[in-house]
Amino acid sequence: MKRIVIIGANSAGMSAAIAARKLDTKAQIILISDEKYLPYSRCGLPYVISEEIPNFEDLILFPPSYYEMMKFDLRTEVTVESVNPIEKTLHLETETGKKETIEYDKLLLATGASQIIPSIKDADKPGVFKLHGINDGEEIKKVMQKAKTAIVIGAGYIGLEIAHALNRKKIRTTLIEQNSQILSKMLDTDMADIILKRLEKRNVNVITGKTVEKILGENQATGVTASKKEYKADLIILATGVKPRVELAMKAGIKLGSTGGIKVNPRMETAIRDIYAAGDCVESSNMITGQPTLSQLGTTAERQGKVAGINLAGSYSTFIGILDSTVSTLFDLEVGSTGFTESYAQQIGFKTISGIIRSKTRAEYYPGGKRITVKIVAEPDMDRIIGGQIIGGEEVTQRLNLISIAIQNRICVSTLSKADTCYAPSVCSPWEPVVLAAELATKKIASARLNL
C-alpha cells in the first residue's frame, strides 16, 4: 500500500490530500499538523475579530467525521523534526514529547509561511500581537474587550482587514505603513487613494512613509516610536507580511529558489525524488514574465495542492503559474487586483498605458447601484493586458476574474474592448465598466502610435 505523507494540513495540504484520495482510494494518507486545531481557514481570522463570523471554530474546514470518511490519518500537535530523503523517513515529536519515526513513499511539504517580525526594538514585548493563527486571534479578542486605541503596523490586505475589524468594534485605530502608500503591492496610488479616503471617513488615522523603530512601555506595550515621533495605544498588532517556512526543507537538502521559497517544477516536484512542495513555502512562476515569485495566497495554495495531490497519487498535472489575483472587503468596499500594478510594471521595464473608468454597478436610473472604479493596465507595443484593479461597492470579484482570464489567455486589450457583455438594469449597466476601461486604454494606445 502506498504511503503518502503530507506535512502541513491547511489549504495546500488539505487540497492535496483530497485530490490524491479521489485518484487512489487505497493509499494511506497521513496529514501532519503542528497546530492543535483541525485544519482551518486563516483568511477568515480578521472576520472573526470583527464578529462578522461568530466564532473561530466556524473557520474549521471539516468535522472529525470527514477525516474518517476520507480515511485520512490526521495527526495534530505533531512537529516534524527532520526528513531523511535517502531512507525516506520522517522523525516526529508530539506535544507530549513522544518521538516517532515513520516511512513515506511520497512526501509533500506544505509547511506554509511564518510571520515576518520586523527589526523593531522590543517587538516581543507583551501587548504586541500578530495574527497568523487561531491562538493569535483569541489573544487579540481578549485584549480588544478593554482596548480603546490600537496601532496596526503594516498596510497590506491583512493590516487593512485588521484595521477594519478594530474600527467595527469602535476602537480608535492608527495604521502605520513604511511605504509611501497603503496597499502598495496591489494598487497604484490613484486607486489606493480611494481606500485612503474611506479610511479617513471612518476616522482611521493613516500614517505612511514612516518606519516604526521601537515599542514603548516598561513591562507592557503602550505605543510605538515611528520616525522619532511617539504614538500611544492599548493594543499593537504586527501585519508585516509572511515568509516561507523552509527550515525543514533546508535541513533535508532541498533546493530553494532565488525568492527564498522551495524550488519546484510545474508538477510541484522538488529536486529530490518523491518529495513535492506546495503552498506558501513554494516559489511560483509569474504568468506574464515567467520569472520566479512568491505568491502567498490561499487560492494559490489550493491550486498548487491539487496539482501536487494528483501527482502524488500517480497521475499527471501541472501548475501554470500565478497572477496574484486578490480581493477583499474593506470598510464596505470590495477591493481587488490581478497581474501587475502600473508602477511595478514600469519598475521592471514595461511600457504601460492604462484606462480608468468610474461607473455604477447597475443602470444609472435603477435604485441601489453602487460606484465602481476599474483600471486596466496594458503594454502598448503588444496591445496586451498585464494588470487590473477594481474598487467598488459590489460585483468586483467576477470582473477581476474576467481580467485575470484575459491576461492568462493573452487577450489583446483591443479585443477586450469589444467584448459582448450582458445587460439588465437591475444587475449591471449597459456599458460594462471593464470593457469601457479597455476601450479607453485601446484609444490611448492608438493615439500613442499616431504620435510616434
Question: SSE layout and pairings?
Answer:
Elements: E1 3-7, H1 11-23, E2 28-32, H2 45-49, H3 64-69, E3 72-75, E4 78-84, E5 89-94, E6 99-103, E7 106-109, E8 113-115, E9 128-130, H4 134-144, E10 149-153, H5 157-168, E11 172-177, H6 189-201, E12 205-208, E13 212-216, E14 223-226, E15 229-232, E16 235-238, E17 242-244, H7 247-251, E18 275-277, E19 283-285, E20 292-294, H8 298-312, E21 326-330, E22 333-339, H9 342-347, E23 353-360, E24 371-379, E25 384-392, H10 397-408, H11 413-416, H12 433-450
Parallel strand pairs: 1-2, 1-7, 2-3, 7-18, 9-16, 10-11, 10-16, 11-12
Antiparallel strand pairs: 4-5, 5-6, 8-17, 13-14, 14-15, 19-20, 21-22, 22-25, 23-24, 24-25
Question: Which descriptors apply to this entry?
Answer:
single chain; 452 residues; FAD/NAD(P)-binding domain; five-stranded parallel sheet; Enolase-like, domain 1; alpha/beta
Question: How would you describe this structure to a colleague?
Answer:
The chain is α/β, with parallel strands linked by helices and 452 residues long. The protein folds into three domains: 3-43 and 58-114 and 243-312, FAD/NAD(P)-binding domain (3-Layer(bba) Sandwich), CATH 3.50.50.60; 128-240, 3-Layer(bba) Sandwich (FAD/NAD(P)-binding domain); 333-450, Enolase-like, domain 1, CATH 3.30.390.30. Helix content is 27%, strand content 27%. The protein is built from twelve helices and 25 strands. It has helices at 11-23, 45-49, 64-69, 134-144, 157-168, 189-201, 247-251, 298-312, 342-347, 397-408, 413-416, 433-450; strands at 3-7, 28-32, 72-75, 78-84, 89-94, 99-103, 106-109, 113-115, 128-130, 149-153, 172-177, 205-208, 212-216, 223-226, 229-232, 235-238, 242-244, 275-277, 283-285, 292-294, 326-330, 333-339, 353-360, 371-379, 384-392. The strands form seven sheets. The protein has a five-stranded parallel sheet. A five-stranded parallel sheet has the order 9-16-10-11-12, covered by helices on one side. The protein has a five-stranded antiparallel sheet with strand order 21-22-25-24-23, with helices on both faces. Helix 1 (11-23) packs parallel to helix 8.
